[in-house]
Design a protein that fits this description.
The complex is a heterodimer of chains A (about 120) and B (about 425). Chain A is an alpha+beta fold and about 120 residues long. Chain A contains 2 helices and 6 strands; from the N terminus they run βββαβββα. Chain A has a 6-stranded mixed beta sheet, with helices on one face. Classes of the chains: A alpha+beta (about 120), B alpha/beta (about 425).
Chain lengths: ~120, ~425
């Protein structure tokens, strides 16, 4: 079972829980004048922590790396298609909303994107 | 230096036959301690903790999520007395952040080769708050043998019958099963112990019956077959998780003493039916493990699955409800969807619904879980089915002259407690 690399432009190395070296897929794009990032879970190809377990820390690391203003970020978590017989590994997209305190993300809440919403963000089929 | 390892108690599942097996994590950990440590183990499931007993340093070993709250309570009591407490074990790794406030130190990772540093720091009064050895795996050949001499054997005995001993032949797992945290805990690579080392440890276990606790032995055919081949002369009888579905492997497993396996039953396919039959063809019994509440299961699916179990000649069945243990994909999915409503870890026993199922109410899933247990054991109670399995192993032992009769002096005791026997 291998994560599909569709929707991934580059591999981003980040620090996971307890300092674990971790990896995710990353796609950056502009959306309505904002910086948007699509962060993809890599499952077996991620040696460390899942993207969801360290959402706020990962969003902070992305902003730091690419010099993005946290107030100007649209952050989307992506579980890529795993081509598994099990529905738990179907492709899913979640927009993550945060509170921002002292320019750092906190208190994440996830909102699953419908097909229509996905089309708006990614102009996908 | 007196070091005391505490294994906290947990509440057993209601309505099920309770067996207290000797803990494995603490005795494997104890083998990694420096030689000068005077170590003692207290398993609170079978004995009472003496908080006044002399001890320099306390270690709390936690395997299950249902142990963590009790572990924290115990730590708080020892720390009030001024004693230093370190936490370790797989459940500590899953709940490390929340364990920190109750600990002087938290150890993450595998203990082999790391304890000299910890105890030197303790002696120098410079214990670190965190020892983080996650994914810095020790040489797999350096593991064991476990310190089973620390176990009070009489406490793991039911009416004169000794419980199985736990043993592990590998660490890590190459599979990433949806509800499982093992890849987080032990890494995504399979790390088999050298067969000679595993056999060396098996030879010194004073018990003919074992539970090989590896997540799955079916991860390297060559190693699995070498292990089974080498186990044949030991004449042990053992329980394990899945064995590879290959006639050559099953044949060797049977010769090596495979008694029964835990096999996941996830659908009602012919494949499952035939898989069970193939185990039976080699004289290996099967306890089906059935996970209820996955998002792809409707009420009808669950009922169909229960009916199916009654048709396929399972020797035993164990039902669990989906539980979102931290660091699993289940947890990630359910937290993102806002579906976890109960965060009390005492309820994370895989018998209580702590999340909103997709196709039914939590209450309905709880009812179906109870219905599954009742239906499967309706015609023949669990204790009777267990006795049949037990009779099978006794017969095999009698045939190869390894049978050990009951310990008569313990016949009126069950896990250290007196029982009244009806004659």
């Amino acid at each position: 079972m291998k994560a599909s690399l569709d929707n991934i432009d580059t591999i981003f190395e980040f620090t996971g829980s307890w300092g674990l070296a971790s990896k995710c897929g990353l796609k950056r794009f502009a959306f309505n004048g904002k910086d948007a990032v699509l962060v993809s879970e890599l499952y077996q190809d991620n040696p460390g922590t899942s993207i969801t377990q360290v959402t706020t820390s990962l969003a902070n690391q992305v902003c730091e790396k690419f010099n993005i203003d946290p107030n100007n970020l649209i952050y989307i978590e992506h579980s890529p298609e795993m081509n598994s017989k099990l529905s738990f590994y179907n492709e899913e997209f979640y927009k993550v909303n945060f509170e921002i305190i002292d320019s750092k993300f906190t208190k994440p809440s996830w909102q699953m994107l419908s097909m229509d919403e996905k089309k708006i963000y990614f102009k996908i089929k | 230096m007196k070091f005391r390892i505490i294994y906290p108690k947990w509440e057993k599942l209601e309505g099920q036959t309770t067996f207290n097996l000797p803990p494995h994590g603490p005795v494997v950990f104890a083998a990694a301690l420096p030689g000068y440590i005077d170590v003692k183990l207290t398993d609170e499931n079978v004995e009472t903790i003496d908080f006044n007993e002399e001890a320099d340093f306390i270690g709390i070993s936690m395997m299950l999520s249902t142990q963590v709250k009790r572990g924290w309570e115990i730590a708080d009591l020892f720390r009030k007395q001024g004693k230093k407490v370190i936490f370790g074990g797989i459940s500590t790794m899953l709940h490390a952040e929340k364990t920190m406030p109750h600990a002087d130190s938290v150890f993450l990772g595998e203990a082999e080769g790391r304890m000299e540093e910890v105890f030197t720091d303790f002696k120098n009064n410079s214990l670190k708050k965190l020892y983080n050895f996650m994914y810095q795996f020790p040489d797999i050949a350096s593991i064991g043998p476990a310190r089973r001499d620390l176990l009070n054997r009489k406490l793991y005995n039911h009416k004169g019958v000794q419980m199985v001993d736990l043993f592990h032949a590998s660490r890590g797992c190459k599979f990433s099963c949806y509800p499982c945290a093992v890849t987080y805990l032990g890494g995504r690579g399979f790390r088999p112990r050298p067969v000679a080392k595993a056999i060396e440890e098996l030879e010194i276990i004073d018990n003919n019956r074992l539970f090989i606790v590896d997540n799955s032995l079916a991860q390297s055919t060559k190693w699995e077959m070498e292990l089974f081949e080498a186990m044949i002369p030991l004449k042990k009888k053992w329980i394990s998780h899945t064995i590879e579905d290959d006639p050559k492997v099953l044949n060797l497993a049977a010769k090596a003493g495979a008694w029964y396996v835990y096999q996941a039953i996830f659908d009602t396919s012919d494949y499952i039916k035939e898989r069970i039959k193939r185990y039976h063809d080699y004289g290996i019994s099967v306890e089906g493990t059935i996970l209820l509440g996955l998002d792809n299961q409707t009420e009808d699916d669950i009922k169909r699955l229960i009916d199916f179990l009654l048709e396929i000649d399972l020797d035993l069945a164990e039902f669990t409800v989906l539980t979102p243990f931290p660091k699993t994909k289940v947890y990630d999915d359910l937290i993102r969807q806002g579906r976890i409503f109960d965060h009390d870890y005492n309820h994370y026993n895989a018998g209580k619904v702590v999340y909103q199922p997709k196709h039914m109410s939590p209450e309905r899933l709880q009812e179906l879980y109870n219905y599954a247990w009742e239906s499967f054991y309706h015609d023949e109670p669990q204790s009777q089915k267990m006795f049949k399995l037990f009779a099978k192993v006794m017969l095999r032992e009698m045939n190869d002259n390894t049978f050990r009769p009951r310990q008569r002096e313990l016949i009126n005791l069950s896990f250290g407690k007196e029982i009244s026997r009806s004659i």
